[in-house]
TrEMBL record:
Top-rank lineage group of the source organism: Bacteria
Name used for this protein in its record: BLUF domain-containing protein
Pfam family membership, one: BLUF
Domain BLUF: 20-111
Gene3D superfamilies: 3.30.70.100
InterPro entries from the UniProt entry: Acylphosphatase-like_dom_sf, BLUF_domain
Organism: Psychrobacter alimentarius
């Protein structure tokens, strides 16, 4: 006879809460609002992500954003639905969805790409497919490598 704890554990696993997912997407600020509005949206996302046990790495400039988020399968599915239904003005495009063994990001990391020569040169020479930084022109491997390279100094060491 199985114990009650086993039933609870199996019920908990039924929706995939025990499976970690990484979702990477790109977006474009299609409404051309100033950075203040986008900053407000991102701050709200940060608070929601913390409450939902989501970790994230976000790279943004005045026109585009790249984000890699990690969390349980049901939570990532909720985030994806919200992206599509509530943030369609960001023109989100999914780059990669995969199961992961451990989180790569620690908290909600943000890197704002400035028009400085250093940021621009690094982004364009190393990862971009065009003359300007535009993640829509980049292959998925370029996007994921770019996010990892930007945050390589701040990546957490995943716990076993």
């Amino acid at each position: 006879m199985q114990t009650n704890t086993c039933h609870t554990s199996e019920k908990h696993k039924r929706n995939g809460e025990h499976i970690l997912i990484s979702l990477t997407y790109i977006g474009k600020n299609s409404e051309k609002n100033n950075g203040v509005e986008l900053t407000r949206i991102l701050e709200q996302w940060r608070r929601n992500n913390e409450q939902s046990d989501i970790t994230s790495a976000l790279v943004i400039n005045d026109d585009y954003l790249l984000q890699s988020i990690e969390g349980s399968r049901p939570v990532i599915n909720e985030v994806l639905a919200k992206l599509i239904n509530e943030y369609s003005h960001l023109l989100p495009h999914i780059v990669e969805v995969k199961e992961i063994e451990a989180r790569k990001w620690d908290g909600f990391l943000i890197k704002y790409l400035t028009s400085s020569a250093e940021d621009e040169e690094y982004a364009l020479k190393s990862f971009s497919a065009g003359a300007d930084f535009n993640p829509y022109l980049m292959k998925s491997t370029q996007i994921t490598s770019f996010i990892e390279a930007i945050f390589e100094d701040t990546e957490s060491r995943a716990c076993p």
